[in-house]
Description:
By secondary structure, the protein is α+β, with helices and mostly antiparallel strands. It has a single domain (about 25-150), classed as Nucleoside Triphosphate Pyrophosphohydrolase, CATH 3.90.79. About 35% of the residues lie in helices and about 15% in strands. The protein contains three helices and two strands. It has helices spanning about 25-35, 100-130, 135-150, and strands at about 45-55, 60-65. Strands 1-2 form a two-stranded antiparallel sheet. The radius of gyration is 19 Å and the shape is elongated.
Amino acid sequence: MAxxxxxxxxxxxxxxxxxxxQSLAEACSREMKEETGLDIGASAWAQTGSRLEIQxxxxxxxxxxxxxIRFAFQPEIQNLEPDKHQAWxxxxxGSLPEQIWRPDMDVIxxxxxxxxxxRLADQIRSEMVxxxxxxxxAELVENFNRLLDMFEGPEKPTGP
Length: 160
């Protein structure tokens, strides 16, 4: 993901909206395919943030979109723009590299937290179903509700 202007730093795929893009989500799909070869439809993208980034005399308005897609296997990522990027690589949320472009790191952290909460919520839901009549069921419900209280917004897990 290293970009020539930010050597040694990992970045998320992205780019500019072109005049022929019908939406920002369509631009995301096009950029992803152009840079990595991954074909992710426009309907899979959701806006997750926006910020103004200023570095010296240069400024950008960054709008972040994320998508959550489950693959049966981890697809190969191609580097289709080697003049712009050195490499692309998958990382697990718990083993991210240290050198991530700061604006992207903020978005990554914001998107990982709800994802982890949803996985934990699914696990707690399963335990609650398995132990519905058990004496500790009330404790499971209480733990689940505490988890829900930690999150706000569209990614908030739903109750049991």
